[in-house]
Amino acid sequence: MTNLPTQVLKWERWMVLGGLFSVFLLMLPWVRSFFVESGQRWLYIFSVSLIFTMTSTPVARWLGFSLRVMDYPGDRRIHQLPTPRLGGLAVFFGFILAVLANMVLPEKIVVVLLTGILLLVVGIMDDTWELPAWTKLVTQLVASGVVISWGIVLTVFPEGLFGNTANIILTIIWLVGITNAFNFMDGMDGLAAGLAVLIAFFLGFLAFQTNQVELGWLSIAIIGASLGFLPYNFRNGSPAMIFLGDGGSTFLGFTLASLAVMGFWSDHNPIVSFISPILIFWVLIYDMIYLTVDRVATGKVSSIKEWLDYVGQDHLHHRLARALGSQRASVLMIFTLTICLGLGAMALRKNDAPEAIMLLAQASLMVIIITILEYRGRLHYSHKSEKESEEAVNASGNPVYLVK
Questions:
Q1: What percent of the chain lies above the pLDDT cut of 70?
Q2: Cβ atoms 183, 249 nearer than 8 A
Q3: What pLDDT is attached to residue 98?
Q4: Per-domain residue ranges of the chain
Q5: Choosing a second label site near 104 at 20 to 30 A (CA), which of 94, 248, 300, 381?
């Protein structure tokens, strides 16, 4: 096996020392009281999560090297260097420290945190030993069942036997679907962590606007932790130093999905409350639906087991990278789409069902346009690859096979 560096870089050591000192100061009772009494509790939560994640990420990186919890380059990977996969640990500890330091923990939030920890642990086990896909799915179903048993359920349908059953099924589909869709987005530098920042921002904004301050504080903790991780994962001109890994991406995905279920995102209309988070998560939902339809239609998968096991470079970020010419352009395009749709959710809060349906239709048209553009990009990429292959054959006299 390739020898891997295990040392922490000099600047990372200073980052760890300075960060620990800053977190120590923030943990002092009088410092916390100052933020709370001055009405800046949100800034306190943000600061703790941001600084501690920035502090602990170099440690998680060192652990990844030392324990060989690595993502190695391969045919199904787009990165070129062995990279640690324990970034989710740093994000989790930054998030959980901020939540605990805030000292406001309603029972339902505790349940979400505990189920998130379950997914984090199983995800790290998968990063280390590559667990079967069905193991992760069963874990997600168990976590969803625990959350639902505590009354965290969507209320789209009216109460009654049919309505309650439909709401439970819809909640399971939402939690498991968003968790996996978010995990799929952890395929390019900065993409998953950046999406976590944006999704949490829009959820947090709506939470504070609808007087759901506990959900707003949780959203801010996610924003701070994800931003603290980004400098190591989304670097200008350089590859990522560390990845979230399945542990981090499933934890963030499930936690964000649970926050969406817990909240009521409209002043008065349940349909608007349901559609608002759909707009915020729309990019994830679109990617999941597109992948499923495309893989079944093209015969890539023919069963649930094959769908769970299938790994390919056909996700939205891969397709956009081929259409736009670079990974960074793809990531920024997805961020832009998420911002556009999130702004729609913010504007929707005081409107009624017709406006919500029109915004949902607008979101559908946006992704249809993106689908057409990336499809054209895929055709161009295919034709270009075939041309290069023909030129290589003509030059050498021997066939050269290019992997697409």
A1: 88
A2: yes
A3: 96
A4: 10-386
A5: 248
